[in-house]
Amino acid sequence: MSSHAHAHAPVGGELWTRPFGILVAIAALGGVMALWRFASGLGAVSNLNDGYPWGVWIAFDVVTGTALGCGGYAVALLVYILNKGQYHPVVRPAILTSLLGYGLAIVAVTIDLGRPWELWKVPVYFWRWSHSPQLEVALCVAAYVGVLLIELSPAFFEKWKASPDAGLRGLGRKGMGVVNKAMMFLLALGILLPTMHQSSLGTMMLLTGPKLHPLWFTPWLPFLFLVNCISMGYGVVVLESHGSANAFGTRRETGMLSSLAKVATGVALFFVAFRVVDIALRGQLGALASWYGLAVFLELGLLVAAAVILTNDSKRRSPGPQVLAALLLVVGGTVYRFNVYLVGFRPGENWSYFPAVPELLITFGIVALEIALYVAAVRTFPILAGEPEPARV
User: How far is residue 273's CA from residue 169's CA, in Å, rounded to a whole number?
Assistant: First the structure.
């Protein structure tokens, strides 16, 4: 059965299972910590200071979280730009993952900045900060969340079209027609916006100047952040696909993911080669013989290990090695972003930072909420493609 023949359908089943309840409890605990932050200020829940004005909420929840949400962007490049239609079954779940990743990144930024009632000023008075990369990230991320929600809306409309309620059926038909007419424009925005804000996340660290270690401070930071998010996006798509197959019993797309792995391998090796050449041309090879050099070897070594697995034909076609390689891609990309935003950032000898327990609890709560919302969405709406696996006797 070809991938094109797989219809999207809700996986159904009981929602309030014990694992789902645990996720909700962790998310609720994170919510309590977030309320504490708004009631008592940053100092009560975090170890942020004047030297480290950003911490785990920015480095992980935003900078890394949006990259983990780039599965939709990475797959869209293949399906709609390079015309690789065989990857279409993973587009809708990738868009859902992107929507949740970006949406909750906005939540994390709001917790970090505070004063959510002032957010309306960002799009209204944007002209005052027209040269700010932070402004570009804020506007592009907010717009991208709206685009992702519209791109995912056919899943809601399909469910409403099958509703016994005549009003919902009519709304589903009309909504589907409107989205189909606007889809080409939405796809263009869906590719343009991540390209802009992911590169701008790299641009922001150029503003730190000599405070960022030379192993990471390079004029190519915007480009490296863009390439990095693509490789992470492919890794997330593989993990999401196999995770859904294990959790919900949907058909595995092992063959299609094997083909996708070839693309991910090329992107990862390009990133590694570009990083090494850039470090060499800037005369920083000697800096690799330091503790900071170990961090570089870790980020690049994880990507090389993933590429080694994926260049082996038999391993690339097996679910286990696919998952391991995808995990290495994701972790390697995460380490790179942490290195740029935290490890390689040197505000001065008198400053140090390690996240406080409430900070971590808020981050864990955001991650748990994202997983819980994903589970609720795929059980309720036609997100995943493929019929359930035949029962094994």
Answer: 53
The end-to-end CA distance of the chain, in Å, is 22
| Distance in angstroms (rounded) separating the CA atoms of residues 207 and 310 | 37
Distance CA 110, CA 116 (A): 6
pTM, rounded to two decimals: 0.87
Question: Residues 122-180: pLDDT tens digits?
Answer: 777 766 666 777 787 888 888 888 888 988 888 888 888 887 888 888 888 888 888 88
Which distant-in-sequence residues (6+ apart) come within 8 Å of 370 by Cβ? 100, 101, 104
Mean pLDDT for the stretch of residues 28-47: 93
Contacts of 272 (CB under 8 A, 6+ apart): 300, 303, 304, 307
- Residue 34 — very low, low, confident or very high, per pLDDT cuts 50/70/90? very high
Question: CA-CA distance, 160 to 155, in Å (whole number)?
Answer: 9
DSSP 68: H
Return the bridge partners of 212, or none.
345
DSSP letter for 391, please.
P
Half-sphere exposure (Cβ direction) of 238: Cα atoms closer than 13 Å:
35
Coil vs helix vs strand at 10: coil
Read off the tokens for 265. Answer: 């391998």
> Which residue from 86, 393, 52 is spatially nearest to 208, judged by alpha carbons?
52
Q: Tens of pLDDT along 262-301?
A: 888 999 999 999 999 999 999 999 999 999 999 999 999 9
CA distance 5 to 158: 17
Query: 385: part of which helix (H) or strand (E)?
Result: strand 384-385
Provide the 3-class DSSP secondary structure of residue 82: coil
